Each structure stands twice: as structure tokens, then as C-alpha cells.
Amino acid sequence: THTDLQGCVLVVIAVVLALIVQVPGHFPDPDSFYHAGMADLARHGQFPPRFPWLDITTLRGQYADLHLLYHLTLVPFTSAFGMMAGIRIATITSIGLLTLACFIMLRALKVRGAFAFTLLLVGSASFFFRVNLAKSQGFAFIVLFLGLLALFRRSRTGLFLAAVFAVWMSNHWPVLGLAVLMYAGMHVGTTILGAPRQWRAIL
After folding, report:
1. Which of 19, 86, 187, 196 could disulfide-link to 81, CB 3.0 to 4.6 Å?
2. How far is it, in rounded angstroms, from Cα 51 to Cα 20?
3. Distance between CA 185 and CA 53 in Å, rounded?
4. Rounded to an integer, what distance in angstroms lies between the CA atom of residue 86 and that of residue 75?
5. What percent of the chain has pLDDT over 70?
6. Full-model pTM
7. Can you tell me the distance from the alpha carbon of 102 to that of 140, in angstroms, rounded to the nearest whole number?
8. Cα–Cα distance measured from residue 2 to residue 8, given in angstroms and rounded to the nearest whole number
């Protein structure tokens, strides 16, 4: 259908742009090496409770992997393509999927110009640079978009699952929580202003 074709075009554009960015073969952010290394440890079933590589910091004695789900997501890519190539391919994959997730969310919410808005997002230099850093942002945005869709559709199960994935995916999970609070606040405000005597509808 026409919508499917638009989704495919957006994914192709996003993937091609991501390939162009990833071709030079270097990481502009050193955190990418950390994520690749943690994914390699996870591939071998190692989940260190301490981080001895930073022996003069507090992480030497206590360490928590705040991106555990992201590192587990990287495992199939690093296993198939190696650490460095694997994390690049995973990043490109996440960009294609987040573009599709954004388009699906906008279409599901019947937003006019969903194709143009999604293309505008992909064409944003700052945004595209950030999601190409071989970090957890790409997959975190996928969870965020699906979580927002569940929120607007008032799917408690979907929102709960999105919250769980967001917490285990990266430390960007407060963004989804903030969106829920803002949505709840707007709902409360419009209910009170629209029908002051029907405040029980808020529940």
C-alpha cells in the first residue's frame, strides 16, 4: 500500500545516511568502545558486579550495568560480525527501526504529514549525529516511540512493557516517565476545566 511504501522509503533513506556516516570507520565518542566491550562480555556470559578497569573510581567496588538490555541486544551483532563491525551494524539497524517506529507512531495517531515529519527528524543533523554515535540512543528511541503510542492509546500493558524495556535499555528512561506525567497532568487539567463536577472521570 501507499503507507507501506512510504515506510520503506523512510527506512531506506535513514539506512543509507547511516551507512554514509559509519563508512569512515571511527567512533566519535569513546563510550562506543565501552559498549562494544560490555557486549563482548555478555556474549561470554560475564556480567561483572565490579568494574576493575577504572580502579581509582568508585566503580572499582560497585558497578551496575545501566545499559544491560542494550548490551544484550548487541550480542547477536557482535557474535556475527565482531565487536567493532557488529556495533556499527547494530547502530545502522537501530536507526532504520527508530525511523520506522516514529512513522508508525505518527500514522497510528493519524498525524497529518507523518511522512514529512519523520523525514524532518531523520534530516536533523544534530539528531542524526547523536543516534549514530554507536550508543544506546537508537534503541532507546524505538522504545520511547512505542511507549508514547501505548500512552496515547491508553494501553496499560503496552506502556508497562515499554517502561520495563526503557529502564533496562539505557539511562534515558526518565524521558518516558516525564511524558507520562505531562500527559496525566494535561488529562487532569482538561477534565477539571471541562467538567468540574465530574472529577471522578480522572480516575
Report:
1. 86
2. 34
3. 44
4. 8
5. 92
6. 0.85
7. 12
8. 10
- How far apart are the C-alpha atoms of 138 and 5, rounded to whole Å? 22
- C-alpha span between 62 and 25 (Å, rounded): 33
Q: What angle do CA 93, 99, 101 make, to 5 degrees?
A: 100
Q: Which residues contact 46 (CB under 8 A, 6 or more apart)?
A: none
CA distances from 16 to 4, 96, 136, 141, 188 (A): 18, 9, 20, 19, 43
Q: What is the rounded distance in angstroms from the CA atom of residue 89 to the CA atom of residue 68?
A: 19
- Output the CA angle 8-13-17, nearest 5 degrees: 150
Please give the grid coordinates belonging to residue 43: 556474549
pLDDT tens digits, one per residue of 105-151: 999 989 999 999 999 999 998 888 888 888 889 999 999 999 999 99
> What three-state secondary structure class fits 68?
helix
Please name the residues in contact with 22: beta carbons below 8 A apart, sequence gap of 6 or more.
Answer: 88, 91, 92, 132
Query: How remote is the C-alpha of 166 from its chain's centroid?
Result: 8
Task: Report pLDDT digits (tens) over 50-104.
Answer: 777 777 777 777 888 889 999 999 999 999 998 888 999 999 999 999 999 999 9
Please report, for residues 14, 138, 158, 160, 163, the alpha-carbon distance to residue 144 in angstroms, rounded to integers and kept in the order given: 18, 10, 11, 12, 9
